[in-house]
Amino acid sequence: MATTFLFLLLSAIFIAKAQRGQSVVNPGSFLTPTTTTTTNSSWPSPSGRYAFGFYKQGSGYAVGVFFAGIPDKTVAWTANRDDPPVSAAVTLNFTSDGRLVLQLAHGTTKRVAVYGETASSASMLDTGNFVVYNADNQTIWESFQNPTDTLLPTQRLLYDDVLDSSVSESNQSTGRFRAIMQQDGFIALYPIGTPYYIEYGYWSKGIQGPPLNATLNLDVDGHLYLANGNGIVTISAGGNSTKGLLYRLRMDDDGFLRLYSYNTNRKGDWVVTWSADSIGKCDPKGLCGVNAFCVIYDEEYNCTCLPGFAFVDESKRTLGCERNLTVDNCKEGTYDMEEEINTVWENDTLSRCFHQT
Ligand SMILES: *[C@@H]1O[C@H](CO)[C@@H](O)[C@H](O)[C@H]1NC(C)=O
Ligand SMILES: *[C@@H]1O[C@H](CO)[C@@H](O)[C@H](O)[C@H]1NC(C)=O
Ligand SMILES: *[C@@H]1O[C@H](CO)[C@@H](O)[C@H](O)[C@H]1NC(C)=O
Ligand SMILES: *[C@@H]1O[C@H](CO)[C@@H](O)[C@H](O)[C@H]1NC(C)=O
Ligand SMILES: *[C@@H]1O[C@H](CO)[C@@H](O)[C@H](O)[C@H]1NC(C)=O
Ligand SMILES: *[C@@H]1O[C@H](CO)[C@@H](O)[C@H](O)[C@H]1NC(C)=O
Ligand SMILES: *[C@@H]1O[C@H](CO)[C@@H](O)[C@H](O)[C@H]1NC(C)=O
Ligand SMILES: *[C@@H]1O[C@H](CO)[C@@H](O)[C@H](O)[C@H]1NC(C)=O
Ligand SMILES: *[C@@H]1O[C@H](CO)[C@@H](O)[C@H](O)[C@H]1NC(C)=O
């Protein structure tokens, strides 16, 4: 009797779940930055773990995919990340002709996801992948193939794919560091804008080829590894079967690649499970910008200007330093020479005082 009841109960739960199924978004749907009685600000995944839609950014809003079921709306993907935030007076439309656009003021629109075909539906999946389908239910666009700074479980970095850090925790615009899945089978870290040569990189991990075309993979249990059809190289073991653990890999604004986990049973904060190993806080090259150097202080990095230089912006010390001298100071006999110890100099063009005379 009890077993039958349990069976019926389980079937009921299963059917309820199956009916909720994928949360399908159809053309004609729209979102607004703030939820009202008639509009929503995001489309949630079936479990409610992820959502696609508006989130707060600066004094306005951005559009992207974020962890929705936890107190701190952690961002996993952002559309048009380098555009300024939008005001509250916009709508995000899945238009009747199948485009995903931001409807801005004065009737102008901006595409949120760019694809060639006409979309028939879209879906926020429970993996954190936002997918757009054509009339044949074929995927024509997915956030998993257009990563910003984060890799989610089951998402892969294929060769030449990159994760670019954000400016900061609260600004998702492109920052200064990049993780690239190289064709030679190495996942490697570089400052953005430098060539992919060994002297510019500051960390890497590789898998022996052939075959080439290695991928970086993250499993739902936190297993982070390189694979190339020949075998795998584990970067972080994972394997914890604990239910309710969420994972994400992020290229962080301080130049470190880190794997984070979040225990949904305990709430609390994201915890660093793994981070690019064998490098120091000051190793990400260019961390302090030009005319500055990095020192470790209390286990944290701290940027310091060269003598005679001052921070471009005292509140954003990683932007580097500029001359704090007038041209007059540069005249012969009016300057001092100082020796900097324990520093390594790159052969690079810096705005040095004597360039100005
Ligand atoms: C807002 O979202 C809820 C829950 O997902 C849904 O039931 C409701 O229909 C949505 N409202 C609008 C106006 O789309
Ligand atoms: C984010 O950072 C970029 C680059 O530094 C800057 O131009 C932009 O104004 C910042 N956005 C916000 C919302 O602070
Ligand atoms: C977006 O949706 C709003 C609300 O339904 C509508 O007024 C507006 O015309 C739509 N814009 C586009 C480009 O479809
Ligand atoms: C597309 O998938 C949805 C949900 O899985 C299904 O309801 C629909 O019939 C499918 N359409 C086509 C044309 O296969
Ligand atoms: C790597 O993948 C690309 C695209 O799938 C393919 O064209 C190329 O032949 C592959 N290279 C190797 C060495 O497998
Ligand atoms: C697995 O659990 C152990 C013990 O709680 C913890 O120390 C370890 O960091 C966890 N590993 C991962 C990959 O989450
Ligand atoms: C770096 O050191 C200065 C004092 O020299 C201090 O004001 C600043 O807060 C430090 N920055 C960090 C990130 O620790
Ligand atoms: C910059 O120069 C001015 C005038 O020479 C001086 O008062 C100031 O302290 C200097 N600032 C720094 C950060 O060195
Ligand atoms: C520094 O760079 C310049 C220009 O690229 C080059 O001519 C010079 O030989 C380099 N010096 C050293 C010491 O590497």
Automatic annotation (TrEMBL):
> Which Pfam family would be a valid example here?
B_lectin
Q: Which CDD domains match?
A: EGF
Q: Does the keyword Nucleotide-binding apply?
A: no
Q: What range(s) does the Bulb-type lectin domain occupy? A: 28-145
> What SMART domains does the annotation carry?
B_lectin
Provide a GO biological process annotation: recognition of pollen
UniProt keyword list: Disulfide bond, Glycoprotein, Signal
Where does the UniProt annotation place the signal sequence? Answer: 1-18
**PANTHER family recorded for this chain?**
G-TYPE LECTIN S-RECEPTOR-LIKE SERINE/THREONINE-PROTEIN KINASE SD2-5, RECEPTOR-LIKE SERINE_THREONINE-PROTEIN KINASE
Q: What is this protein called?
A: Bulb-type lectin domain-containing protein
Task: Please name the source species.
Answer: Castanea mollissima
